Every structure is written in C-alpha cells, then in structure tokens.
Amino acid sequence: MKKKYTVTDRIITRITGWIAVILVVALAVWGIDSLWGYYRYEQTNDAQVEEYINPVISRAGGFIVAVKFEENQQVKKGDTLLLIDNREYVIQQQQTEAAIAKNIAQLEVLESNTHTLHQTARSADAQIAANKAKVWKQKLDYDRYNQLYNEESATKQQLENMQATLDVNNSDYASANANYDAALSKISDVNAEKEVIKAEIVRLKALLERHKLDVSYTVITASYDGRMGRRTIEVGQMIDAGQTLAFIVNNETDKWVVANYKETQIENMRIGDKVNFTADAYPHKTFNGTIISLSPATGSSFSLLPPDNATGNYVKIVQRVPVRIRVDGGRQEIDLLKAGMNVNVYVPKQQQHG
C-alpha cells in the first residue's frame, strides 16, 4: 500500500528543513566568529570593574546628632556628612582655656613680684653703701680715740663706746649684705618659677589645640567629590573613635578593570596595549582601555594560604595573573561602569610593541 503525504506534511517538512539549514548556518557563523575572535584576541570573562571605595571613619566618639546624607547621594569635597554631640569636647576646651588664663595671671603676679624684689635689692644695695661708709667713719673715730687713749687724753669708756659703735656698724653692714643676697636669691627663685609656668602654658596651649581638633572631629565631612554608598548610621547611635560609619566612592580618581588572565595568555601583553571590553550590564556597548600594569605574581600567591607544591601531592593547575586596565573615555561613559561589575575583556594579539 502506497503511503500518501498531505500538503500539510510537505509544508512542515519544508519548514523543518529551512529551520535546520538556518540553525546550521547560524552555528557555523557563530563558530567562525568565535574562532576568529580567539584567533585575534586574548579573551577572559574573569574580570571586574574596580574603583576606590573608601570608608568614612570617625576620629571622635559620641552620640550622632545629625546625618546629612542619603545612600547613593552625590557629595562635594567639604560637605557635612555627620554631626557628633560635641558638648564634652567643648567643655574640655573651655577648661584648658581657663587653665591657660590662670597661668598667665600667675605669670603676671610673678612679674610684679620680680619688679618688687628688684626694688628691694636696690634698696639693700644702697644700705650696703651707707653702712660701709658708717663703718669707715667709725673706724677712723675708733682709731683716733685709741690713739688719744694711749696718750691718756681719752677715757677707756669713750674708747669702749667707739668700739661698740664700730661693732654695731659692722653688724649693720653684714646685715645689709645678707639682705641684698637674699633679695637676689628670691629674684632667682621667682625667675625659675616663671619658667615653670611658661612651660606649663606651652603645654596647655598644645593641649588646647588638641581639644580644638577633637571639636572639629565632631563634624565629619567628605574628603573629596564622590558618591555615598550604603548608610548604616542613624541619629542617636553611639559610636567610637575609629569606627567605620559609611563608604564613599571617589569620583576624583580613575576607574580600572582587573582582568585575571591565564598564565598561557599573557605572553604578548605589554603595558600600554589597547584593550576592548564589554560589560554584562551593557552587552551591546564596547568600552576602551589601556593596560597599565601586570601583577608581579599570580593571584594564588597573594592568597592567605598560598599553595605549597612541595608536598608530594602536586597537580598542575593553570594559574591566573591579574592585569590592570585603565578605563578610557569620557566621564559620562566611564560613569556607566560601577565597581564590581563583570566585564569581558579582549586584548588584540597583534599590537605594535617598541
């Protein structure tokens, strides 16, 4: 019995044939394109976009009284991000300022005392000269009475009176010298005390600058133009000095791609080579870049526990070498790429090397 094909069967067969032909052609084109790509480029999809993401760290502890930013917000250098309760720091600053004022007042009192002691020393010096003159005159009188006594022209009582007066004048002269030395000693003591207070003022002024810094640390500002990352802090939260409060992405630096190429692919790569890459987020857009460095070691060598191949269990594994690629292009184009995005990198094999 002869089998009959209907019109529908013929149409289905024809459509199936064309679909098969199209699939074969598509696979052939895809295969040729892939082979051509592997022939022209060293490729890898083990690559990510990188940029500087820096933590915002508090240099003072205390309670948060205001948060001035939102997640993903654009900020300018110097913009206020957070405010910390500064009352304790202000009180410490005021106490130090008061201590400085007290020491300056004490220094002024000592300056006045020094002036008074100088006057006392000058007075004692004058007394020395006066008493010295009295001693000299009394010595002459004593010598005359002694001569008269020897000639029996004066009584012994008169001579003894002259001797007593001379002794008194000598004692006054010695006392004046002692008073002068004491005044000079007091001046030296006061000068030493002034130096101690001056050193204390210097110390307190340095401490005051420290307290002023602590007060300034209660206002946390953006260190550069950038974009804020995740916000993990709220008003009323207690923080410690050194605590990470947020993250900021630096807009003032370049972005780059770290492409982890197999060690068998980097033979012809050189610094300065031009690179093309696409991002998974923008598969139909091609970005340009330039190789700026090749890692001095494989990625595994920088791991916490680098492999030790001298254990007797060696299995050869192709290692990967990080290649750093600067992203070229305009700011608007570069801003499309975000840190952590996956990219596919293509390094042309045929490049002119000097």
UniProtKB/TrEMBL annotation:
<feature type="transmembrane region" description="Helical">
    <location>
        <begin position="12"/>
        <end position="32"/>
    </location>
</feature>
<keyword id="KW-0472">Membrane</keyword>
<keyword id="KW-0812">Transmembrane</keyword>
<dbReference type="Pfam" id="PF25954">
    <property type="entry name" value="Beta-barrel_RND_2"/>
</dbReference>
<dbReference type="GO" id="GO:0055085">
    <property type="term" value="P:transmembrane transport"/>
</dbReference>
<dbReference type="InterPro" id="IPR058625">
    <property type="entry name" value="MdtA-like_BSH"/>
</dbReference>
<dbReference type="Pfam" id="PF25917">
    <property type="entry name" value="BSH_RND"/>
</dbReference>
<keyword id="KW-0175">Coiled coil</keyword>
<dbReference type="GO" id="GO:0016020">
    <property type="term" value="C:membrane"/>
</dbReference>
<feature type="domain" description="CusB-like beta-barrel">
    <location>
        <begin position="256"/>
        <end position="297"/>
    </location>
</feature>
<protein>
    <submittedName>
        <fullName>HlyD family secretion protein</fullName>
    </submittedName>
</protein>
<feature type="coiled-coil region">
    <location>
        <begin position="142"/>
        <end position="214"/>
    </location>
</feature>
<dbReference type="InterPro" id="IPR050739">
    <property type="entry name" value="MFP"/>
</dbReference>
<dbReference type="InterPro" id="IPR058792">
    <property type="entry name" value="Beta-barrel_RND_2"/>
</dbReference>
<keyword id="KW-1133">Transmembrane helix</keyword>
<feature type="domain" description="Multidrug resistance protein MdtA-like barrel-sandwich hybrid">
    <location>
        <begin position="56"/>
        <end position="249"/>
    </location>
</feature>
